[in-house]
Amino acid sequence: MADVSAEIMEKNNLKAEDVAWLVPHQANKRIIDATARRMGVGSEKVMLNIEKYGNTTSGTIPLCLWEWEKQLHKGDNIVLAAFGGGFTWGSIWIKWAY
User: pTM here?
Assistant: First the structure.
């Protein structure tokens, strides 16, 4: 997740200060921290709920967005990052629309 998140920033000319939020797959806090470090974003920009729910598999990103929605603002740059079974991973940059 760390490499692909940094890559999505590089390909879109985003700097750490441009990113409002990192919304990572909630499987492992160590991996989440490594992803934020690789992107250069502080922990205050990382949506977390792993301590509350554990690994909710494919529901981790939507659940985070739902829980943190009140803190999102129109135009926020958000990086979503996940990995899954079969050694798959991905990341996407979105701009919050409302």
Answer: 0.94
Q: What is the pLDDT of residues 12-39, one digit of tens each?
A: 999 999 999 999 999 999 999 999 999 9
List the CATH number of the domain containing 77: 3.40.47.10
- Range(s) of the domain holding residue 33: 2-95
Q: What residues contact residue 47 under an 8 Å CB cut-off, 6+ apart? A: 21, 22, 23, 24, 64, 65, 67, 68
Q: What is the domain count for the chain?
A: 1
Contact 55, 26 (CB under 8 A): yes
pLDDT recorded at residue 87: 83
